[in-house]
């Protein structure tokens, strides 16, 4: 279990949320030569899977992974931990045990990118020279951007929690257990986020929890989202609206959390459509999805990123638009897909084939269609499995109506996906469900 005291974190470190855990660095390898064929920056879902694929192809010690964290979290489990369905201890493995043995792991952080000289500087003062660079840093959680939030998340037995950080996720289940009446308020920020479905999954789980505990009638459940819609894909939004209505969940769109006053249990929101209009809402529990951004160290390298700070890649090939020996995978990329582990999985064979082609000086043939998937958990035994591509049209794997709440999808999310992730994705064998979708498509045509 992670506790602030055991980590000895400063306030500003706590403000960085789970990135803090990733920052406890100590060199894992001493590089004899600060050079490699491929440098992978980040050992999250995308970085780890790609390091496995690339090091298996290129051989030992050709790939360096730069990653400061000692633990690798299976983040898709965090919503279930917030609902008390899993424990935090079940969500991680040691980084040393998930990174491929054929790659060198440097347990440091990338602090400066120089794509003109093909080098990256590290927090330990190393400079690494690469032939090819894969940027897989993921996102940074900016809890500190909301005044009062970090303090609210530090109050012992407080009323504020967040499933996005291992530091704060256990608080969510504590909040669910402690609340007896009043307002349960849930937020979605005004920034790109990873797993955009998660902030509402925890709403559904909480609402179900309150019903199970017989306290639902005393609690108002409100979801305040900065987005103009409940879900970006109409096919699934049309299925979700009746659920929120039937379960008496209030949804306010274009409402953005701007301050938390923990001493008074007040959350302050702004109306994004009417500048200056503010709402003060008293809460008995508050669930916050923090604003996010590309990590500062990456965002400051303007040669590599777009205005929003994300790596400026071609959305099909995942190759950098200017630096042809630079690729990106996962949440740090500017490709306009939903940021989920499933997207990184679907990107991984494309990035792999294209990087190998680029290494050989060949043209890039593989292209990513924007596939993303979001298992929208709607309670303690149901889930809608949303799957879609860049065009925001459904791209579904199974020959069933996936816009319906199903136990089978819940079981897949809760019990099968972790196995798929640890045993298939991280070792580099899982390329997303495209193959499965093609095989199952024979049943779909029969159905019609
Ligand atoms: C998926 O590929 C993936 O990444 C490993 C997830 O994250 C854990 C998912 O939640 C889902 C649903 C997929 C897609 C897989 C199938 C079988 C539809």
From TrEMBL:
<comment type="similarity">
    <text>Belongs to the SQRD family.</text>
</comment>
<comment type="function">
    <text>Catalyzes the oxidation of hydrogen sulfide with the help of a quinone, such as ubiquinone-10, giving rise to thiosulfate and ultimately to sulfane (molecular sulfur) atoms. Requires an additional electron acceptor; can use sulfite, sulfide or cyanide (in vitro). It is believed the in vivo electron acceptor is glutathione.</text>
</comment>
<dbReference type="GO" id="GO:0070224">
    <property type="term" value="F:sulfide:quinone oxidoreductase activity"/>
</dbReference>
<keyword id="KW-0874">Quinone</keyword>
<dbReference type="GO" id="GO:0071949">
    <property type="term" value="F:FAD binding"/>
</dbReference>
<keyword id="KW-0285">Flavoprotein</keyword>
<keyword id="KW-0496">Mitochondrion</keyword>
<keyword id="KW-0809">Transit peptide</keyword>
<feature type="domain" description="FAD/NAD(P)-binding">
    <location>
        <begin position="37"/>
        <end position="149"/>
    </location>
</feature>
<dbReference type="InterPro" id="IPR023753">
    <property type="entry name" value="FAD/NAD-binding_dom"/>
</dbReference>
<dbReference type="GO" id="GO:0048038">
    <property type="term" value="F:quinone binding"/>
</dbReference>
<dbReference type="GO" id="GO:0070221">
    <property type="term" value="P:sulfide oxidation, using sulfide:quinone oxidoreductase"/>
</dbReference>
<dbReference type="InterPro" id="IPR036188">
    <property type="entry name" value="FAD/NAD-bd_sf"/>
</dbReference>
<dbReference type="InterPro" id="IPR015904">
    <property type="entry name" value="Sulphide_quinone_reductase"/>
</dbReference>
<dbReference type="GO" id="GO:0005739">
    <property type="term" value="C:mitochondrion"/>
</dbReference>
<keyword id="KW-0274">FAD</keyword>
<dbReference type="GO" id="GO:0106436">
    <property type="term" value="F:glutathione-dependent sulfide quinone oxidoreductase activity"/>
</dbReference>
<protein>
    <recommendedName>
        <fullName>Sulfide:quinone oxidoreductase, mitochondrial</fullName>
        <ecNumber>1.8.5.8</ecNumber>
    </recommendedName>
</protein>
<keyword id="KW-0560">Oxidoreductase</keyword>
<dbReference type="Pfam" id="PF07992">
    <property type="entry name" value="Pyr_redox_2"/>
</dbReference>
């Amino acid at each position: 279990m992670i506790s602030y005291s055991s980590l000895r974190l400063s306030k500003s470190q706590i403000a960085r949320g789970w990135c803090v855990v990733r920052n406890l660095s100590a060199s894992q390898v001493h590089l004899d030569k600060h050079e490699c064929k491929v440098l992978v920056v980040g050992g999250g879902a995308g970085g780890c899977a790609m390091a496995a694929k690339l090091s298996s192809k290129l051989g030992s010690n050709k790939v360096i992974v730069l990653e400061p964290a000692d633990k690798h979290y299976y983040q898709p489990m965090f919503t279930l931990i917030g609902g008390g369905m899993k424990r935090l201890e079940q969500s991680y493995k040691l980084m040393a045990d998930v990174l491929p043995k054929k790659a060198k792991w440097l347990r440091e952080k990338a602090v400066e990118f120089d794509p003109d000289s093909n080098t990256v500087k590290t927090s330990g003062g190393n400079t690494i020279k690469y032939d090819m660079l894969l940027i897989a840093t993921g996102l940074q959680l900016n809890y500190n951007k909301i005044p009062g939030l970090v303090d609210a998340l530090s109050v012992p037995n407080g009323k504020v929690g967040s499933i996005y950080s291992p530091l704060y996720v256990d608080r969510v289940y504590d909040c669910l257990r402690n609340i007896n009446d009043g307002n349960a308020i849930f937020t979605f920020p005004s920034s790109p986020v990873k797993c955009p479905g998660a902030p509402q999954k925890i709403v559904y789980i909480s609402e179900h929890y309150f019903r199970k505990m017989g306290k639902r009638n005393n609690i108002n459940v409100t979801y305040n989202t900065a987005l103009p819609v409940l879900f970006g894909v109409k096919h699934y939004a049309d299925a979700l609206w009746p659920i929120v209505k039937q379960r008496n969940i209030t949804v306010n769109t274009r409402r953005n959390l701007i301050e938390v006053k923990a001493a008074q249990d007040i959350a302050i929101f702004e109306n994004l459509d009417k500048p200056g209009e503010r709402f003060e809402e008293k809460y008995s529990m508050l669930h916050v999805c923090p604003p996010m951004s590309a990590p500062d160290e990456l965002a400051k390298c303007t040669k590599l990123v777009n205005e929003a700070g994300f790596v400026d890649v071609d959305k099909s090939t995942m190759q950098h638009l200017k630096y042809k020996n630079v690729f990106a995978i996962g949440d740090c990329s500017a490709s306009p897909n939903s940021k989920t582990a499933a997207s990184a999985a679907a990107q991984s064979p494309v990035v792999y084939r294209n990087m190998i082609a680029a290494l050989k000086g060949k043209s890039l043939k593989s292209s990513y269609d924007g596939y993303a998937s979001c298992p929208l958990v709607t309670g303690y035994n149901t889930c809608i499995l949303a799957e879609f591509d860049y065009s925001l049209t459904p791209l579904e794997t199974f020959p069933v109506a996936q816009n319906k709440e199903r136990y089978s999808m819940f079981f897949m999310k809760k019990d099968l996906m972790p196995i798929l992730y640890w045993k298939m994705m991280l070792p580099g064998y899982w390329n997303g469900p495209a193959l499965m979708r093609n095989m199952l498509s024979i049943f779909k045509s029969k159905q019609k």
